[in-house]
Design a protein that fits this description.
There is one protein chain. This protein is an alpha/beta fold. It is 47% helix and 11% strand. It is built from 15 helices and 8 strands. The strands form 2 sheets. Strands 2-1-3-4 form a 4-stranded parallel beta sheet. Strands 6-5-7-8 form a 4-stranded parallel beta sheet, with helices on both faces. Strand 3, helix 6 and strand 4 form a beta-alpha-beta unit. The structure holds iron/sulfur cluster (SF4). The site of iron/sulfur cluster (SF4) has 16 residues, from helix 5 and helix 14.
């Protein structure tokens, strides 16, 4: 495996977190460039969920494409100004050659994203495809349909990689990603049980960097820092515990998360939920593609862009709040994100009915001023603390 991060093993936890933030905020994707310089190929996939095991099994680096704080100069001409930012900034990364890929896959999660691959493909020399996750997750045939859909995408991956992928390759990759799921569960457990040890912006950086480096490297990094974070000696402060909801697709700037962390302990969230979509280990025996498909449907969390009658979002949010013993919720949506804004209404009604306080806000990946958001949030926090 090619390591793409600077050597971090002798560094302090704070230095490792700072390095992860640098990687995430660099629009030139230095870790991906290093992978390519070493001769590796790259599959970029747009939000929300993609079975990265398929790319990993073929030796490709799966990279989570979720925009960047770049001016969408060329991309602005290809998407309407009334649409969310992430599709434009993601496309801009490709048009400006900041992010060089060998294959791009997106999903029809919304009216905007469903056009992304077709528009992307007009300007790049590599294939761009749509992975059609089941529209109806409740159908008897959803798992077998999705298994075949994964097989279709795997053929394309094999063409790109120039090699066949066997079931044993997939099983080995599932094992690597099971380790990653376990480590991310541990990271969220630390936040839930001792949130003063790991502020939300630091937790986010440690999670998100996994979308830009080989998963074995992410596993080694998390295995090294998580025990050291758990052993930190930090005095808890008098802050309310909140769940952050609304970061499933476009991501808020790390600086906004840092501002939230100054007045609240964020004990759970849906940031980059696709990296944690499958909540249990995937069975590595039997048919690995069917196992991945079944796990997507049966052992998974929720987001506004998956439609599953067994997972009503507002009930799932209430369960997340209760499981993390949160006092309140921050209900956000990316600007111009229709699925996110739609869901806000249902969330707010459910929180009203349950008597749980909530703060409603909006963000944009290119935000540079956080004062307004922070002042409003601090007022909300004082209300929760003192009324
Ligand atoms: S941010 Fe919302 S509208 Fe934009 S691509 Fe994602 S789900 Fe679609």
């Amino acid at each position: 495996m090619t390591a793409v991060l600077d050597d971090w093993r002798e560094r302090s936890v704070d230095d490792v977190i700072a390095m992860a933030k640098d990687v995430l905020e660099d629009p030139d994707f230095p870790t991906v460039a290093r992978w390519r310089e070493a001769g590796g190929k790259v599959l970029g996939h747009f939000q929300v969920y993609f079975p990265e095991e398929l790319a990993h099994a073929a030796g490709l680096l799966p990279v989570k494409v979720h925009g960047a704080a770049v001016e969408g100069r060329d991309a602005e001409a290809r998407f309407g100004s009334y649409l969310c930012s992430i599709v434009k900034s993601s496309l801009e990364l490709a048009l400006s050659n900041r992010l060089e890929l060998d294959l791009f896959v997106s999903h029809p999660i919304c009216d905007v994203a469903r056009n992304l691959a077709a528009i992307w493909e007009r300007s790049v020399p590599y294939p761009c495809r749509i992975l059609y996750l089941p529209q109806n997750a409740n159908s008897t045939y959803a798992a077998s349909y999705l298994r075949d859909e994964y097989a279709r995408i795997l053929e394309l991956i094999e063409e790109t990689a120039g090699r066949r992928v066997g079931d044993d390759d997939l099983r080995a990759s599932i094992a690597v990603f099971n380790d990653n799921r376990r480590l991310l569960r541990r990271l969220y457990e630390i936040r839930r049980e001792t949130p003063w040890l790991l502020p939300v912006d630091d937790a986010y950086a440690l999670t998100a960097v996994g979308g830009r480096i080989p998963r074995e490297e992410h596993n080694a990094l998390l295995a090294s820092v998580l025990p050291r974070i758990a052993a930190r000696v930090v005095k808890p402060q008098d802050r309310i515990r909140v769940v952050f909801e609304g970061g499933f697709c476009e991501q808020p700037p790390i600086e906004l998360l840092r501002a939230i962390g100054q007045s609240c302990y964020v004990v759970d969230d849906d940031l980059l939920i696709g990296l944690r979509w499958i909540v249990e280990d995937v069975d590595a025996s039997g048919d690995p593609l069917l196992n991945l498909a079944t796990a997507y449907l049966e052992r998974s969390t929720y987001s506004p862009v998956q439609h599953d009658l067994r997972k009503p979002k507002e009930k799932m949010l209430l369960a997340r709040i209760r499981a993390s013993r949160a006092d309140a919720a921050i209900i956000t949506a990316a600007k111009m994100c229709e699925p996110g804004l739609d869901e806000q209404v249902a969330y707010v009604h459910a929180l009203d009915d349950a008597g749980i306080p909530y703060f409603v806000g909006e963000f944009e990946e290119k935000m540079t001023s956080f004062d307004h958001f922070q002042i409003q949030l601090e007022t909300f926090v004082e209300n929760v603390l003192f009324t």
